[in-house]
Design brief:
heterodimer, A: 335 residues, alpha/beta, Rossmann fold, Alpha-Beta Plaits, four-stranded antiparallel beta sheet, 11 helices, 27% strand, globular, B: 253 residues, mainly alpha, binds adenosine-5'-triphosphate, binds magnesium ion
Chain lengths: 335, 253
């Protein structure tokens, strides 16, 4: 059995069937042993709903969930023992110190008594909270609470870890340390189910990504293959000398251009055939007496794929969508 | 077989873990102090001051009130609060049965009720020089009463909501209702037969009768029946909690 999670026709309707909200709509997917599986979707796509069903917190309206081949609806106990859960909101006890929060979860998950202190110390050191171990969590910053809630979720060394949007609202350094930790846990054998609406996060971490939209799986594959499947969202970026707004009319009507977007001081032209467009651009520059400052061809980014699939407008994201940029942007959706 | 013993030990330890954590986290919260600590004393003084009341009678009544109000205050406050903060999810997702979680939560209310009752009892003993006719019966009564009324409070706390205000209101209303039909302010022996028949439906009647028996040495009902009713009601009040928790899992709150 190399599938840790198998989901068949998983459906959730909040409220009365027929009249309720269809939040998750007949999902089918598997999560493989040892992978980092990304669950990527815009706000309201059904990520949290799915994750809550997978972690026994919510009863599916329809469908089956198998964890390590055991049906969750029949006996959740074995699954609960191996699952770690980091929910959307940091759920720490603000009245307790960091140390006591960890001791509480260790006891709740029956970590052997002799190991509790050592594990808590190791986690607090990893998360940079060791100096603050005797401080009540009410005095913690958002980032510290988040790190503490992750530490609480992994003190029993879960074989399968669920994270629901672990990084929004954190600074770049906290994000990096959380990503680092996810990679390390995965290297040590933990299977990771990562819900996120941050494309860069999925791109950086995940071996496979399911893109979900309106409660359905729209695509599921490795980030590289997802990008390769979307040749039509390749693009060429060009910058001309001087004020380009007035000086470059009619660019979007060049043959082969599907969409045009302004990206900082550059213009991005989406096309299925970048090399043909390159030569046309040179001709255009010559005929308009414009000096080209820079000219690049770009493969599709996961962001473009995501927007294409979820119905957002390609190129509408605005400032820069290159994958070397820090991943601080979320994709707005329906909320 | 061995596996089952291990499992039961684990679940027992988990219930204890939940209870100890709740006591530490919530005992000084305004919601707990207000509904759990001040309320019984407030009820006691507002209905007992003008009347001629013997010290023993007063202590028996105060004990019934503290057990009743304090035990029932924890559930409706703690569970919706934890649902709102999200910490309840951690408890629900943990590898333990729902019953274990509910037992832990019951123990919290019972613990508060026993503590406040001990304070009330000490006040009675030290300030008014009350004597206790049957101390062991009193201990059993306080404990079983605390458990019974804690599970009653838990049933309200289990209503799927993230706002304690939503459930404190109905739970307070029900408890006031029970208070006035239960022979706390009017002794059972002075009630009209119809009123007494209604009083027998309320577990508080048996708690009050037990306190009378234990403190004054004169109850109207067989104390064994009192104890039996209190234990049974503790079990029966568990059911709505289980059912409501299942509902919450469907509703997603
Ligand atoms: N308890 C609930 N009752 C009714 N509707 C709900 C409930 N929870 C979620 N929904 C609805 O279900 C849909 C999916 O919500 P869900 O929280 O799963 O999305 P999400 O992908 O996690 O979004 P986000 O990125 O904003 O966290 C939304 O339309 C939401 O309004
Ligand atoms: Mg969500």
């Amino acid at each position: 059995m190399n599938h840790v999670i198998e989901v068949e026709n998983l459906t959730k309707i909040y409220g009365r069937p027929g009249a309720g909200v269809l939040a998750v709509d007949h999902l089918n997917f598997e999560v493989r042993q040892g992978e980092i599986f990304g669950f990527l979707g815009p706000n309201g796509a059904g990520k949290t709903t799915t994750q809550r069903m997978l972690t026994t917190l919510l009863e599916p309206s329809e469908g089956r969930i198998l964890i390590h081949g055991h049906e969750l609806a029949h006996d959740a106990y074995p699954a609960k023992r191996m699952i770690g859960l980091v929910p959307e909101e940091s759920n720490v006890y603000t009245e307790l110190t960091a140390w006591d929060n960890l001791m509480f979860t260790a006891s709740l998950y029956r970590v052997p008594r002799a190991e509790r202190a050592a594990r808590a110390q190791e986690l607090l050191e990893t998360f940079g909270l060791w100096e603050k171990r005797d401080v009540k969590a009410e005095n913690f910053s958002k980032g510290m609470r988040r790190r503490l809630s992750i530490a609480m979720a992994i003190i029993h060394k879960p074989a399968l870890l669920f994270l629901d949007e672990p990084t929004p609202g954190l600074d770049a350094q906290s994000i990096r340390s959380i990503w680092e930790l996810i990679r390390r846990m995965n290297a040590e054998g933990t299977t990771i189910f990562l819900s996120t609406h941050q494309i860069e996060e999925a791109n950086q971490l995940c071996e496979r990504v399911a893109i979900i939209s309106h409660g359905k799986v729209a695509a599921i594959d490795t980030p590289e293959r997802l990008k390769a499947n979307f040749r039509r969202v390749q693009s060429v970026e060009v910058a001309f000398e001087g004020e380009m707004a007035e000086k470059s009319p009619g660019l979007e009507s060049l043959p082969g251009v599907t969409t045009q977007a302004k990206v900082g001081d550059k213009i991005r032209l989406y096309t299925e055939d970048p090399s043909a467009l390159l030569s046309r651009l040179i001709q255009y520059a010559e005929s308009h007496a414009l000096r080209v400052v820079s000219l690049n061809t770009l493969g599709p980014s996961l962001e473009d794929v995501f927007l294409e699939i979820t119905g957002g407008q390609v190129g509408a994201v605005g400032n820069g969508s290159q994958e070397d940029k820090p991943a601080k942007r979320g994709m707005g959706g329906r909320k | 077989m061995n596996q089952w013993i291990e499992r039961i030990k684990d679940e027992w330890a988990q219930a204890w873990t939940v209870a100890v954590k709740d006591v530490r986290v919530y005992y000084l919260r305004p919601g707990m102090i207000m509904f759990g600590f001040l309320m019984p004393f407030f009820m006691f003084f507002s209905f007992s001051v003008q009347r001629e009341l013997g010290a023993e009678e007063g202590v028996a009544r105060l004990l019934a009130l503290t057990v009743f109000f304090t035990a029932g205050a924890a559930g409706p406050f703690i569970i919706p609060t934890e649902r709102r903060i999200g910490t309840y999810d951690r408890l629900l997702a943990a590898p333990m049965s729902l019953i274990t979680l509910l037992l832990g939560k019951t123990a919290v209310g019972a613990f508060f009720a026993v503590s406040v009752s001990v304070i009330a009892l000490l006040a009675g003993l030290l300030i008014f020089g009350t004597t206790i006719a049957q101390p062991w019966l009193l201990a059993a009564g306080i404990l079983l009463g605390a458990l019974s009324f804690s599970t009653l409070g838990l049933a309200f706390g289990s209503i799927p909501t993230t706002n304690p205000g939503d459930v404190q209101m109905p739970s307070t209303l029900l408890r006031w209702g029970l208070l006035f039909i239960s022979g706390v302010f009017i002794p059972l022996s002075q009630m009209a037969p119809a009123a007494r028949a209604v009083a027998y439906l309320s577990p508080l009647t048996y708690a009050q009768d037990l306190m009378n028996q234990a403190v004054l040495g004169s109850g109207l009902i067989d104390p064994w029946l009192d104890l039996a009713v209190l234990s049974m009601s503790a079990v029966v009040f568990m059911w709505p909690s289980v059912w409501l928790h299942r509902r919450a899992r469907v509703l997603g709150r």
